Amino acid sequence: MKILVTGSTGLVGRALVRALVKEGHSVCRLVRPETNANDNAGGFNVAWNPATGELGGAAVGPDAVVNLAGAPIGDGRWTAKRKEELRESRVGTTRALIQAIEKMNVKPSVFISASAIGYYGNRGDEELSEESAAGDGFLAEIAREWEAEALKAETWRTRVVLARLGIVLAKQGGALAKMLTPFRMGLGGRLGSGKQWMSWVALEDVVGILKLCLERTPIQGAVDFAPISGPVNVVSPQPVTNAEFTKMLASAVHRPAIFPVPPIALRLALGREMADALLMASQRVVPGKLKALGYAFRYSSLDSALNFLLRE
Questions:
Q1: Are 295 and 213 in contact (CB under 8 A)?
Q2: In the predicted model, what is the mean pLDDT of residues 148-170?
Q3: Angle 182-185-187 (CA atoms, 0-180°, nearest 5)?
């Protein structure tokens, strides 16, 4: 297939492009003109400015689109300016991408757009499936707007998948890398009460799930025989509480975790809104559609994922 990918320089994008190229797909990486995307992931680059540019040349006529664009949600305090950047990099870029593809004579058969489990807001112990209602707060608001833009591709009779990503764990960076330094120094600890649920997923499974979403045919033996569409919770089947995550990570790096971080410290460091949304919110998300489709997780338990990711 010919596949357009935005966000190809990010953690998930690099891994996905590498996997798709390895399987023989033609991958067109849409990058900003100033981006140096020569990271050996493969594929070919097409410069594209969402604010001004139309898609043309090598980008025309894709079989599929995977839209992973979005500024890192945890980099920098959420000032008014930063929040607008986070929104525009997701909602605005998706809108521009839809408008650019709209002008093509041939439309893609599938449009996969990243979203996030922030869609559900802070929900305590409630088990959250793809059918659960949206929550409240900044992240939920962005996710709703982001998904609404992506769903406009349905007017082309294109299959649309909304990949609601959980906390992606990887060797190469992301959330796990930020946690490791204090834990390896023996300074790790639960955040607040530690009762908040963390819905995580290994990077290898994210790639596998996105590849599944690209497929035109379902997994043999799946309960649901239709190709996957609509919202998909990209999370492992075994979410854990923050206290459990803390204990397992400390064990994986062979260090104690005896320094709990009070909410006030997190709020002073990041600001109340950001700290509460990213670190204190509880989201117990389950991958209902993936279970129905018969997807076999490579890492379904956190201890198996951490043991793999942190092995020397």
A1: no
A2: 97
A3: 55
Residue corresponding to tokens 């190469």: 172
Angle between helices 138-150 and 80-87 (to 10 degrees): 30
Q: At what angle do helices 203-214 and 11-22 cross, to 10 degrees?
A: 60
What digits encode the pLDDT tens for the residues 219-230? 555 555 578 999
User: d(Cα 214, Cα 112) in Å, to the nearest integer?
Assistant: 8
The CATH number of the domain covering residues in 2-309: 3.40.50.720
Closest by CA position to 279, among listed 297, 294, 266: 266
Return the structure tokens found at 15: 């891994």
Question: Structure tokens of 25?
Answer: 């797909």
User: Shortest CA distance to 205 belongs to which of 246, 238, 161?
Assistant: 238
Contacts of 11 (CB under 8 A, 6+ apart): 168, 170, 172, 173, 174, 203
- pTM of the predicted protein model: 0.94
Strands of the chain, DSSP E? 2-6, 26-31, 44-47, 64-67, 110-116, 127-128, 159-165, 167-169, 197-198, 200-202, 230-234, 240-241, 284-285
> Could you tell me the pLDDT band of residue 51, with boundaries at 50, 70 and 90?
confident
CB-based contact 212:219 (threshold 8 Å): yes
Q: What is the DSSP letter of 260?
A: P
Report the pLDDT value the prediction gives residue 284, as an integer from 0 to 100. Answer: 99
Give the Cα separation of 148 and 94 in Å (integer): 10
Q: What is the 3-state secondary structure (H, E, C) of 38-107?
A: CCCCCCEEEECCCCCCCCCHHHCCCCEEEECCCCCCCCCCCCHHHHHHHHHHHHHHHHHHHHHHHCCCCC
Q: Could you tell me which residues are beta bridge partners of residue 285?
A: 128
- The Cα 132–Cα 14 span in angstroms is 30
- Distance in angstroms (rounded) separating the CA atoms of residues 240 and 306: 13
**Euclidean distance between CA atoms 147 and 84, whole angstroms:** 17
Taking alpha carbons only, the member of 142, 148, 164 closest to residue 231 is: 164
Kindly report the average pLDDT of the chain as a whole number: 93
